Amino acid sequence: MIPRNVLVHRMFFLCSAFVALAYAAPAQFKLTKGYCASTQDEPAVYVTNFFDLDVKAFSISTAPLNNAFKNFLVEKYNFKSNAGYPTQCSLFENLSKAQESKQQLVGQVQQLRKQVVEVNWNPGPLATTSERGGDSVAIGPSGPAQTHTFCAVGNQSTMYFSAVFDTFGPTLDPKLNDGFSEFLSKTYGFTPEVDSTCTVQNTVREAEDTLKARIAGVRYNRRKAVETGWKFDPTGTYKPAPKPAPKVDDDPEPVQKTTATPPQSKNIQDFAAKEMSGVLANCQNDRIMSGAFDCYAVQRAVYNYRIGHASDATPEPLAALLDKLKCDECIGQFVKAWARSTAVSRGLKPEAADCVAERFPTALHAKPNPNSAAQMFDDAITACRK
Questions:
Q1: pLDDT in tens, 7-22
Q2: What are the sequence ranges of the domains in the chain?
Q3: How far is CA 76 from CA 70, 80, 119, 192, in A?
Q4: What is the pTM assigned to this prediction?
C-alpha cells in the first residue's frame, strides 16, 4: 500500500495543473510549496523557482495560477504554444517533495534535448476561491487580474484608435466609452454614433500586437487609421500624445497597381505565396483567433482560396477574406480546453467556464469565419456569465 503522503505527492505532480483533484481519503491536505513549468511540447521549457503557499483542501484547481504564469511568459518571452494546457503549476506538502519533482522534470526535459530556462517568477500573494460547496478550491494570485485594453471607433472612411492602457478584469469601467467619445469630439470634431469596440488582452505584448494588426488592416483596406494616443484615466490627468500620420514613404499600406486585365496564374501564385507570412502573423497575433483556429490551417485555406480565385481582377483584401472564409477544418483541436481556460482567466466560475467551453465551439462550427471568433467568444462569455 502506498503511504498517503507519497500518494498525495504523485497526484499533485501528475494532475494538479488543470483539474480539481479528487482524493479517496476524507482528510484535507496542507500544501506549502509550489513551482510552475511550461509544456514540454516546445523547444524551450520555462521553469520557475519555488514559491510559498499555505493551503488546506480536499481538492485543488490551479487554473488561475497556470494562467498567471502563462501571461508572464507571453509578456517577457513572447511565449507561444498550441498546447491545450501550455503551463502547469504543481503543489507539494514540503520543499523536499517539490525539489524531487522539479529535478525529475528537468531530467526529462534534458533527455528530450530541449532547453531548460529558469525564470525568476513569483505569483506574489495567493488567494483561494471555494468551489463545489467548499470541498474544492481554486488557487491563484490575489486581487483582480490586470488586463490591457485598447478601443476603436469610426465610420466608413476613418477609424480612431486609442493607445493600450491598463485595466483590471474583463469588465470595463462604464465611463470609458464616454471619455473616449468626448476626447474624439473635442480633438478631432468626430462624434461617434455607436459605442467604441474595446479589446481586452491579458498582456501588454498581446494588446500592442493586436492593435498594430488592426491598424495595418484598416490601412490595407484604404481607410484612414488615426492613432490618437488616448488612454482611459479615471483621474483625468493623463495627456494623450497622438502619433503623427504616416508619411507616404513609410505608410504600411501596400501599393497596389490597378490593371484592366485579370492577373495571370503565376501572378496570383506569387501574391498568395508572399501573403502567407502575413496571414500567419495576423492569426498568431490575435489571441482569440489563434485560440479558436489552427493558424497554419488558416494560412493554407487563404492560400488555396487565392489560387481558386485566380480570375478575380483584384485580390480581395485579407481582412475582408477572413470575414467570410468558411474554414471548419481550421478549428483547433483543443478549442474546448482553450475556451474554458480563457474563460477562467477572465474571472468566470468553473460552471460558467464549462458553459463557454460548450457554447463557443458550437458557435464556431456554425460560423467558422476567423474574423468572427472574437465576437462569438465575447457572446459566449456574456451568455454564460448570467
A1: 233 333 333 443 334 3
A2: 4-141, 148-255, 260-386
A3: 10, 11, 10, 36
A4: 0.58
